[in-house]
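input
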Amino acid sequence: MLLGIELSLPKILQTGEEKCQVLKDRVSLAFLDQFLLSYCPFIAHFRAAVQREGDNYGLVPASVISAFDTKIVNSCKSINSRAEMDPALSLALVLNAAKSCSQLLSPADSFWIGKRDSFSLETKEKLLNWSPEFTGKTDSTMEFKERTESCLFTAIFIPYCFEQKAKLLNLKVEPHQYFLDVIANHLSVADSSHVLISRALSKASLDARFYFPVPDTLPSVSYLFGNSPISEKHKGSPHCQLKFNKRASILVGQEVHGDAILAAVGSSWKSLGTMSCEDISLSSYHRMLLNRVPWGSYKISRDAILAAKFPASFTTRSNWRGALPRDLLNSFCHNNCFCDPTFSLSEADSMEKLQNTNQTQPGQCGFLNATGNESGMLDGVKKEMGEGLDDIQCGELDNEPTGGGPYRCAVKILSKAGDLIIECCSEMPYRNKSHAIQSAALKAINLLNKDNERICLHQDHATFSIVDDVFNYYKKGSPVYDDTSSSAQNKLPQKDVDLDHNHEMTDLNITGPDCGKSPSSGTIVCIQYSVFLLGKSVRECLESKEEFEFEFGTGAVIPQLEMCVSHMSVSQSAHFYTSLPPESLILAAAGECAEEISTLPLGESGLEYNVILLRLMEPPEERMEQALFSPPLSKQRIEYALRILVESHAESLVDLGCGSGSLFDALLEQKTDLVYIAGVDISQRSLIRAAKVLYSKLDVGHKPRLATASFKSAFIYEGSITEFDRRIHGFDVATCIEVIEHMEEDQAYKFGECALGTLCPRVLMVSTPNVEYNPILQRTVLDSKNDSAGEELTEDVEGKSGLPCKFRNYDHKFEWTRKQFSDWALKLASQYGYDVEFSGVGGSGEEPGFASQIAVFKRCDPFHGSWLNARKCKICSEDYNESNNTDLPCPYKEVWNWNAG
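output
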């Protein structure tokens, strides 16, 4: 320090001998009287040493020294990087250091360390009077009172054999008993020096650690000081003959061999060296195991293990519930000793080269180094982009892109040794930097989840593991190896099971009046739910929430629950049943009753879900529109379509992209000439709702509630509106209301060609948002915190740089200006023989136009007669007739139909 200023000097690299000397000095320090008289975490262990009788008097297990002192742990890692993963290696390094210290002794063929000279009388007296019950005074005035009662706590016993379940273990430590002696007894080892101690699993008030047997032989001296690459190491620990404990190793991120005990017992700096203990329940153990993978961490962050599911897509920050993807990915890397993920932002214009050069399909632009499925994907991109990527460490921008977006983000994860673990990029550009980062993190997590979501079923119970596990799958060349060559598990059938129990639900029953307010994609849904375990002799509530919010349509809850909610309207109640998910999920959710449930035969059990739909918060697009227009813009679009139907005297209507059937709901209450209607959509969930709307008005068991007496039939089809299906050819009117913006732009052109070139309706109405109107909509949002369309952005619209603008819905792939829309429509009309008129709804039509722009296409030479009659058509050279054109394609799947009786 110079003039009160602390100078930052460059670090000097130490030689191997210097590193060993640092370790030797630190181990020696632990046995000094001055050190022991302070409140260090070794106090309880040295107290047991001076209470011990016989040859081991004054000796401390070497594993205590190698596990509980942070500086010793770091010294071991500096000497041999593999020590971080292998507690036995750390133990051997500490023993080797102790044997080289003249003031310490370590008996041959043992794992004890002691002081060669006796402790001072003052030190012995202080140690003997040290007790777990601390009165609260500090420093030289410390006073302790003797503990006279036994210490009882629960731990988890985890057999190395996968065929055996982890079970609750009740431990009892008498007043003058050493807790490691008790654990050694349960592990069936010679004494407490034969117990290895893992690093702490968490930073809780009292650290939970694994205790397991010391291997038969420790690493040789030549192996101790080697820093050869991990891949050069033998499979498994060359010094260990015990079986690899996969479950314990997954939890702690270190090699654990043999049976293990997970216990929260010991002392720490915070407790001033006093002994303490905490219970670990069976449920908390399964939660720890679940928390090792990102999808499990997400469930725990939502405290909804049996209801929540890691979403398939990231829409906006305000719509997301639970831990954010970037935080989950950072946690995963930390838990598994990887480097922090590196995020790289670039402007989408340069990233588009990725699609042109590699031609990767959506969902495939990722790289998992261990699998070899894809390789070097981003290396080629970086060569093309040069300086286009700016690295972001832990999500923080070092050099922020200077352009106005949109942005893509790439993410890369490396092991501590520098090996590439995973590399991928977001599938689509985002107009918001934060959203691009979160989307990239979500993509990486989904790639990891594809390989993590597996359950190995053994005999009559399930025990889940991560695919060949985090160690020998993701850490290529990792020293951790599961030697199961002689294990009975190889003889047992294994089967993949979906961890979110994607089995069909049964007996769905919805009660209460239908108010018509049902969720749509992007809606924030709030439900109340409870989940019960049902069996022959048990009905136990596993999980319940008074209020639980999620974004509908993103896969944020298990499929059965989302399907149930899609059938409900606000204030309705429902219940349904599913088969059991993996037992680990059941026990993680069970809480205090987990131990009882673990003893029950669950073969014929199932789950009962009870749900109440409390409220809905509309998607951002609808909230913006409702804030400005009365009636809402969505209703104005429907009314416009109804006027076209009435004016054209249409007998047939097909709604292309019908969604949940809002047009059908309105038109069947209007007097029209309709005889036949059909709806097409790609979303089965939306079609079920549309069918429900039609069924409520066309129920054959009751008199149909129709204003049109001539109505004969209705059909609902699942399929893409960019594909031709002869069953919807030649209708009088086709509508496509706010649909094309959900496609990629090239697909919008393909839709126009299909609709006008092959489906050939007499009239086609297409509506889509006017992007020039967006600033007006955004300024009218009443509550800015509910505006989940993203932060303020900049878009160059019609050359007007700096116009604040953003898409109305996260799912919109594009939004057109009036000129872009008219260019698209005029080109199609000219090509396929239609006239086109432009109008819209929302606003006066003056600058900047209508909020929703509408194009109405009308055939220049309309066919005469009813739509049922034969007519000329571009798709065939003969008269078109349903009966003589059965060879034409019918790719759509019929979901529902109704015919007048």
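quick obs: The mean pLDDT is 76.
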